[in-house]
Amino acid sequence: MSTTVSTTVNTKAITLDPQVGLQYSVALNTHARYSTGTEPPKTQLPLNATDCHHHIYDARFPTDKTATLKPADAYVSDYKGLQARLGLTRNIVVQPSTYGTDNRVTIEAISAFGLNNCRGVAVVNTEVSDDALMKMHHAGIRGIRFNLSQGGVTSPDMAPSLAKRIAPMGWHLQVNASAEIILDHKSIWENLPIYVVFDHLGHVPQPQALNHPTFALIQALIQKDKAYVKLAGFYNESKVGSPSYSDSAQVASAYAQSAPERCVWGSDWPHPTEDYDKKPNGAYLIDAFADAVPNQQVRNKILVDNPARLYQFT
User: Fold this and answer.
1) pTM of the model
2) Burial state string for 259-273 with b = 16 or more CB within 10 A and e = fewer than 16
3) Which CATH superfamily groups domain 49-310?
């Protein structure tokens, strides 16, 4: 029988399990803005568990003229409350469409969190200079995002040339788009010289998501070592809904079984597409992910090892 020992790492309680050689972050019962409930998840997360998709919003920075999503402010301090509640260690700040190519809100947030445990994904277009890209790299940026769902400042035709420019830095290209848009630009994603990372399960529509051609496309790309998929946004296409999101969990499970080394997880906090009084429960999202990926070693790969590689924590 294993024994456990309690210690403290960066003021966070950690449980050590000598039998399996793992360290677990201890989640707290606490309130976090833009997340329903206060209870921690039933699923205990490993040390260095990474939230690979969340945003920061701050009205100090101007809204881009193309923006369609204009959420309320969601600060670094707010997100830290979610980290404490869920037991997360590392995080990836994703530039929201709200600010276009003005990445100051994201880069400032990375600095506030600290490079030991935080990286970011920026939004740029083909006018960005090589010097600006290198400065972003030093600031913690490790990829660029094409948000094709809310319109904005990028278009699929920019992807090939930008991918060539960021490839030497080991960055990836992240895509948020409807299943139909992803499928329409299949040839672009298949021929990039870098990884493409699909947001939110690829937005494959329910029901019958596993029969959708976009699911087949993403599954093939992750199996061929050309892409990653974020097991995030379970609530986006779900017809079942909270707390199980079992239909979305089924999609996540299928991806994880196909290529567990090419999956990462994200909270999508502060859930900008959801009304304030309908924000999902972060603990439920963790537990739905655990239901989708019941094997602890595979979960640890998705939460710790894969993000460490993709975002260059190691």
Assistant:
1) 0.91
2) bbebbbbbbbbbbbe
3) Metal-dependent hydrolases (3.20.20.140)
